[in-house]
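pasting for ref
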Amino acid sequence: MTAGGPPGQTALPPEPQLREAAIALHDGRLDAAEFALRDFLQTSPRNPNALRMLAEVAIRANCLADAEGLLERCIDIAPQFFAARYRYAWLLFRMNKAHRASEEIERLLLEQPDNFECLSLKSVVLARIGDYAGALALHERLLREHPERPGLWLNHAAALKAAGRSTDSIAAYHAAIARFPHLVEAYWGLGNTKTYRFDASELSQMHSELARPDLSETDRCLLHFTLGKAAEDGGEYASAFEHYAKANAIRRAQNPYDADETSRLFGRIRAIFTRDFLASRAGSGSPARDPIFVLGLPRSGSTLVEQILASHSEVEATMELLNVNALLERLDGPYPEVLAGLDAEVFEALGEEYIEETRPFRNRGRTFFIDKMPENFRHVGLIHLMLPNAKIVDARRHPLACGVSNWRQDFEADYAFTYDLADLGRYYGDYVRLMAHWDEVLPGKVHRLVHERLLDDPRGEVERLLAFLGLPFDEACLRFYENTRPVLTASAEQVRRPLYKSEVEQWRNFEPWLGPLKQALGEALESWST
C-alpha cells in the first residue's frame, strides 16, 4: 500500500544555502544537498527547515534511523511544523512503527481534520496495525470525496485482499481500471491475486499499454510480470519466461545487487558466532518465552507455517516485523563485529526492547506470537543471545521451486537478489550454509520444516512442529484455511484453502531455462533439505 506525499510543501527557502540544498535535493544530488545543509547547520543548528531537509536526504539515502532522529529534533524545536510532523509519521510507518505513526497522525488531524494526505496515510496505517474495518471505512469515505485519486483505489483493493475479501478486491481493481484505463498497477494487482485469470480483452489492453512510448520503466516491469503470470496460466511457458526475464531485468537495473558482498557478510557472521563466542555469553538475554520466529527465504512456505500456528489457541500472528533489524541499526558499529564488544546486560536490554517494541502488534492476548520476517535467518545467533527462550522455525522449500517462485514475484526493492537466477542460486546456497552453521553451533535451536514434507504428511509435520514449540496438538492447525485473519503477503489466497500439491512441481514448467539457477546452487541443489 502507498501513502500520499507530504502536505504543506513550501516554496524555495529564502536562505541561499537552503535554496541551493533544495535544488540539489530536487535534482537527486544527495551529496551536494547534504554538504550544503550540514554547512548551514554549523551556524544555525536549530533551523527546522534545514533539519527537515537533511532528514529528507537521509530518507532518500535509506538511512532511516538518522532521518528519524533529525525529524524528532525538528518537531521538538518547531512542534507546529506540519509538513515535518507528517513526514515523521510517514517515516514511522515506513519503519514499521505503525502505532507510533498513528499517534502522530492523530495530532495532525486535530489541526487539519480533513487533510487528504493525513487521512490517506491514516488509512494505510490502520491496515498495517490490523484494523481493516477502520481502514476500509476510511477508504470508502476518501473514495467518495476524492474519486480522482488512483492510489486510493489501489490501497482499497489491496486492503480488501489482505482482509480475505478477494471477490471485492477484484471488483475494486476493475473499478480502478474503468476509471483509470492506464493504471498499470491495477492490472498487476489483479495478477498478484493468484487465483485471477485474465480474459482476452484484458490481455489485449495490457499489450497495448506495453506498446506505449511514454510508458515508465516501472510500469513496463509490472506489465511483464503480469503478462508472464497470464501466459503461465495459459500453459505458454516460453512466453511466460520471456516476460518474467524482461521484468526481472528492469528490476535488477533499478536495484543493483552484489552477490559477492552477501557471501562475505554471511562468512563474517559465521566467523563471529563460534561455539566459544556463544558459550562465553551463555545466560545472557531476556527470559521472555513468547516469541516464535518463522524465518527462511521468501516464497518458502513461511506464510503457510504462520497460518497453521496462528490457528492454535495459544498463538497469534503479527506480520513480517522489522524490529530485529531496527535494534541492529541502533548499535554503534558494523554488524556482526559490533556484537563482540557487548556484554550480557546489553543482550538482555536488546531482548527486553524487542519484547516491548513488538507489544503493540499483539492484540489477541495469546501466550505466544509469531515474527515472520524471513531475513531473520541471518540473526539466529543474535536472537539466541537476546532471547534465549525464543523458538525458531526454518521454513524451507526445494531450491528450484523456491527460486522460480521468487523470480516470478515482484518484491520491488525488498529482495534484490531475486531478480537474477544466478543471484538467486548463490543466495539460496549462502542461506543453506549459514543455517548449517547455526545447526552446528546451536544444536537443536532451530526446527526445520520442509514445505514438501508438510504437504506429504500434514498431521505428522504439524505434530512435530507443535512438540518443538512445547504446545499441545490443536486440531484447528490442520484447518488453518478456516482462519480469517488478515494476510499481507503474496500467499494470501493460498493459505485460505486446504493444502494442495499442484504447485510442488510447477518449477518444472521452466526447467529448460533454469541452467543459471542450477549452476549457482552448486551442492545446495542436492543437500538443501538436510
